[in-house]
Hints:
This protein is an alpha+beta fold. The chain has helices at residues 4-18, 38-45, 126-129, 142-149, 156-160, 171-181, 194-213; strands at residues 23-28, 34-35, 52-56, 59-63, 67-72, 78-83, 92-98, 102-107, 114-119, 254-258, 261-265.
Amino acid sequence: MPEIAEVETVRRTLRTQIINKKIKKVTVLYEKMVTPNAELFIKELKNKVIIDILRRGKWLIFDLGQDYLFSHLRMEGKFFLKDQQMPIVKHEHVIITFTDNSELRYHDTRKFGRMLLIPKSENIIETITRQGLEPNDQNLTSKYLYAKLRNKSLAIKSILLDQKIISGLGNIYANEVLYASQINPWRRGKDLTLKECQRIIDASNQIIAQAIELGGTTIKSYTSSLGVTGQFQQYLQVHQREKTNCPNCGSVILRAKLNGRSTYYCPKCQKK
Length: 272
């Protein structure tokens, strides 16, 4: 799944390729993917200009002047920039054709991605407004995180995946952040101390910054689509490193399921 670093990489790449392009037409091949209905979606996007591309958590936000186009890649979503003459391939569900005959095509094997066209005059949908603070936000302090955790009996790994706490962290970076913080993924949120909260914040900031600099992590669910391939997978300490040795203590890294998500950890560095 594309997480905050991968979505930020997509945003930065798209900004160099489609800013100021004017939309000539839109083709929707899977209508459940767009809101409002496909007919209105197509009508309202026509003749709009891509003014800027923003991001909030894992959401891409295309600034179209009077409207925002929100796009969430979910599990397998990817954008491709192609020439209009190129044939449409399987799993290309939304195609935005520009006046220069280039096309921005949204490809999604699982069809989980969503696009929402929302006038700026309306309140942004709850999904967006309830996003938590991002790892580099100055307001993300140990007191903030401690207050969010103190009444939660859930495992800290599950809490970190809740976008209302820290926005943008997914399974890969939650595993890496907890390893760097030396905190067991099954620890209950309410049992963490202020110092441990600070370790999570510091690790989140450092890891996400490095991942963004390296173009994200290229694994099964996130591969090169806009001419960009992430390199952060070379620096992963525990994620997908089951049965290898911990870089810190040499213990064998373990893998287990936590609420259905693959969780990688060092049993010695992250004791229960």
